[in-house]
Write a structure and sequence with these properties.
Layout (H helix, E strand, L loop, with lengths): L2 H21 L20 E2 L4 E4 L1 H13 L5 E3 L1 H20 L38 E9 L18 E2 L4 E5 L4 E5 L5 E6 L2 E7 L10 E3 L5 E6 L4 E3 L3 E5 L4 H12 L3 H19 L6 H17 L7 H10 L5 E2 L2 E2 L1 H14 L4 E3 L1 H13 L5 E4 L4 E3 L7 H10 L9 H22 L1 H4 L2 H24 L10 H11 L2 H19 L2 H12 L2 H4 L5 H26 L7 H34 L4 H7 L5 H9 L1 H20 L4 H10 L27 H21 L4 H9 L7 H11 L18 H19 L7 H17 L10 H18 L13
Parallel strand pairs: 4-12, 4-13
Antiparallel strand pairs: 1-18, 2-17, 3-16, 4-5, 4-8, 6-7, 6-9, 9-11, 10-13, 14-15
């Protein structure tokens, strides 16, 4: 399970528990607080007649019915196959353990050819040059059964040596090299012109059996043979060579878990089988494997139940299979087979748990519940009597509950449903908030605070009025921290909390309407003054709602309009103003603690007196002016498509904050100086330019700039290529330049505001460069706008943003209007300098 899911689950539980604890404080239960086994402190008499189920007697009857069901068995073929596979794996592992011991190969000195030695033909073969006969070299490659290095094809004491066929032999002279392969008897022959030659047997040839290594005779020999002569090399023998038996035994015990005696026997069988296979003799390991499988078949044929498994394993070990090999009974082989089977045997005749459970459930369901009739006035339990489950059920069912008490567990159930529905709404319709556990926690805190406000209202209403409930503040704060839709959801939640916390219908209606009141006023504000106006207007609406609800719900038969409504209106207005202003003051804490970007926070960020903007203006004045112009373009574009214009402007102001680290490396800050990039390699220049993104993120954290605004720093270039430096690098270094070395390190924009920032940034820079040398006519401006937007689309930089083509058209029009207004023609005044 993902960590964020666990966090959200913990928030859900904490919110329900806290709200329940607050709202249930001081409430009771509709039933006596009794538990099974308690001693009755008073006699309990039935206030009314009823029929009470005897749960204990019914459960006993159901359990008897369950116990009477016979368990259904079935043969589990999956278990059987697993056992077969496990036994087979043992023998696969055993065969892999017969590893050769490379340390037994003697060290040979490799022969070399002389560059001066020649061999004259013998007198018998000396003729004319044209008739010189070739020299013939003979040899043999064989399996050395005895390991003595001597080829013995008819040994009387044991195995006879046999020749190895198809092994590659290479004959090399100073002038030539040739390869031959051995015949079926292991012999080989080769002809050459005579003189020195090196004969080499390929010791890695696949026709040499595994487990055999070269013996005492070197596989590389120097031969000197005159033309017309026949020379023989020493036979090259290969002998069996395995790791020490102790190492093989340890490996068998480690891999297969077999006892030492069986492991020792199998280690010998494994190595001996390798030799047998090489000499075409019957092998023992397949016989043991076949016997093991046969024994498994026999055991499974007898159907092993789980309770019979140990007996079956013990029987296998005591009745070892009789294994006949080379006309002799191999006791050790039988013991090994028995241990392999016993240690891996499993029960194959199992209870069908699902069917058994279903049969038991059906039997229990068929039991008729035991019912006991209780008449009015009957004594259910006397004082001092130990209570059973039936006593408690009868007491709860036959006593009239108090209307003044609330069911606290029912309250918990309502709160759990409320919080769960709020979570479902967030996950379905507001995934951007649901994906951030901090925001889920913040909403949970607001719900708990609302529960506290309801509980406080209950405590104060007798001394003051029901309308001390600060419902307006919760709608106000939620609309600012989240959005209008979640504020509506919070208004409904406040209504539910009021209903379960006060049981007053009139106050519930007031709570919902008063929490809804600030939403339309907050959604249109763009300054702190507008926020204060929204507080006053919302409070006036709440006062009007209080007048209506108190008039309809809270005027008793003996009360006058003037005695109730004016007081309700006064409390509603005064508490709403005070609580909303208090919530307005608390917004800054919530913004900082939960990394929330509100309109109020954005207004602070766009204030030119902000420390980060002051630092940007001082260190990189050209970048500062560029950022202001980008902010103007982004603001207009965001408004044209209904995006958050204040957020777009704030992102624009801070997107190039990192340029303050190396301001003179950016063209807009190079006043009366040479471009430092002229002295750098293009790759180094790209690294400097790329670094302003990471430096900007670092500075944003230092100045506590919210994450949503910092996102503009990361994504305003996307992962686009710095074309100027890339093309410059290609001119210097050719086409082998890696284009990824010239990409920005951010990611593509993922919100409408960050996509608008990317377009605004590129457009402002392009216009500044274009119109230094040409007139900014409307047609020229339109061409630049179209070029920049098409470049971003074709490069895929907008592929992750939510902007549609229709919205891009509106953004284009907003860019054109803003730029045409910015570059408007001015009147040339007569005799004015520069006119």
């Amino acid at each position: 399970m993902e960590r964020s899911t666990l966090v959200r689950g913990a928030i859900f539980l904490a919110t329900v528990a806290a709200a329940w604890a607050i709202l249930s404080f001081g409430t009771g239960s509709t039933s006596p607080d009794l538990a099974v086994g308690d001693i009755a402190k008073q006699p309990y008499v039935a206030d009314r007649a009823d029929t009470i189920p005897d749960v204990d007697a019914t459960e006993r009857a159901e359990q008897d019915a369950r116990d009477a069901v016979e368990p259904p068995f079935y043969i589990d073929t999956n278990v059987e196959q697993a056992v077969y596979d496990s036994v087979n794996d043992v023998f696969v592992d055993l065969r892999a353990l017969a590893l050769v011991d490379e340390s037994t190969v003697p060290e040979f000195t490799a022969p070399t050819l002389s560059t001066t030695t020649t061999v004259a033909p013998s007198e018998e073969t000396t003729t004319t040059v044209a008739n010189v006969e070739p020299a013939v070299v003979l040899g043999r490659v064989f399996l050395d059964a005895s390991g003595d290095g001597v080829f013995d094809s008819e040994s009387e004491s044991g195995r006879s040596d046999i020749g190895l066929a198809n092994v590659t032999v290479t004959l090399t002279t100073l002038d030539d090299s040739q390869q031959v392969t051995t015949k079926t008897d292991g012999t080989w022959s080769a002809e050459y012109s005579g003189g020195e030659a090196i004969v080499a047997v390929d010791t890695s040839d696949t026709d040499i059996p595994g487990g055999f290594l070269v013996g005492e005779v070197s596989p590389e020999q120097l031969v000197v043979c005159a033309p017309g002569e026949t020379c023989e090399t020493d036979p090259v023998g290969f002998r069996a060579s395995f790791l020490p038996i102790e190492e093989i035994v340890d490996a068998i015990q480690r891999d297969s878990g077999l006892p030492e005696d069986e492991a020792v026997f199998l280690a010998g069988a494994v190595t001996e089988d390798v030799v047998r296979a090489a000499f075409n003799e019957p092998q023992l390991l397949p016989v043991i494997e076949a016997s093991s499988i046969e024994r498994v078949n026999a055991e499974f044929g007898r159907k092993i139940e789980p309770g019979q498994l140990q007996d079956a394993q013990r029987s296998v070990r005591q009745n070892q299979p009789q294994i006949l090999f080379n006309n002799e009974i191999e006791t050790g082989a039988g013991a090994a087979a028995a241990e392999i089977v016993a240690s891996r045997l499993q029960a194959n005749y199992l209870v069908n748990v699902d069917e058994y459970q279903r049969d038991q459930d059906e039997a229990a369901e068929a039991v008729v519940p035991v019912m006991v009739d209780v008449v009015e006035g009957e004594t259910i339990a006397d004082a001092g009597q130990r209570l059973t489950a039936w006593h408690i059920a009868a007491i709860q069912a036959t006593q009239v509950p108090s209307l003044e008490q609330q069911p606290t567990w029912g309250l918990a159930a309502v709160l759990a449903v409320l919080v769960a529905l709020v979570g479902v709404y967030l996950a379905t319709f507001r995934p951007e908030f649901w994906a951030r556990p901090r925001m889920v926690a913040l909403l949970g805190i607001i719900v708990v605070l609302a529960a506290g406000a309801v509980r406080g209202t209950v405590a104060l209403q007798e001394s003051f009025s029901w309308y001390v409930l600060p419902a307006v503040a919760f709608g106000f704060v939620t609309a600012v921290l989240f959005d209008q839709r979640i504020a509506v959801l919070m208004a409904l939640s406040v209504g539910v909390l009021t209903a379960v916390g006060t049981l007053d219908i009139g106050l519930t209606v007031y709570a919902i309407l008063a929490a809804l009141a600030p939403i339309p006023f907050v959604s249109a504000v763009s300054s702190r003054g507008a926020f204060r106006n929204a507080v006053v207007l919302s409070s006036l609406v709440a006062a009007g709602v209080a007048a209506a609800t108190s008039w309809f719900f809270h005027i008793g038969p003996n009360e006058a309009f003037a005695d109730v409504v004016p007081i309700s209106v006064a409390f509603a207005f005064g508490v709403s103003v005070f609580a909303s202003l208090l919530g307005l003051a608390a917004l800054q804490f919530f913004e900082s603690a939960f990394d929330v970007t509100t309109t109020l926070g954005l207004l602070d960020l766009t204030d030119r007196n902000h420390k980060a903007l002051q630092m940007l203006q001082e260190k990189a004045f050209g970048t500062f002016n560029h950022s202001l112009m980008v902010g103007t373009l982004a603001d207009a574009a965001a408004r044209s498509v209904g995006a958050n214009a204040v957020l777009a402007r704030a992102m624009s102001y801070y997107h190039d904050l990192g340029k303050t680290e190396n301001p003179t490396f950016f063209i807009e800050n190079q006043f009366g100086m040479t471009n430092p990039h002229d002295q750098l390699d293009p790759k180094e220049s790209a690294s400097v330019i790329r670094g302003h993104v990471s430096a900007g993120v670092t500075l944003a954290r230092e100045y506590k700039i919210p994450t949503e605004v910092t996102e503009g720093i990361v994504s305003h270039h996307g992962d686009g290529v710095m074309r100027y430096f890339y093309e410059k690098a290609r001119q210097i270094h050719g086409d082998e330049v890696d284009i990824d070395d010239f990409r920005h390190i951010g990611h593509k924009p993922r919100t409408a505001e960050s996509a608008i920032l990317m377009l605004s940034d590129s457009l402002e820079a392009a216009c500044r460069a274009e119109f230094q040398s040409s007139d900014p006519t409307p047609d020229a401006i339109e061409k630049v706008v179209d070029r920049i937007m098409n470049e971003k689309l074709e490069d895929g930089q907008l592929s992750e943003s939510p902007l549609t083509l229709g919205e891009l058209s509106k953004i284009r029009r907003a860019f054109l209007d803003s730029l045409v207004g910015h570059y408007h023609q001015r009147i040339a005044y007569p005799n004015f300098p520069g006119s």
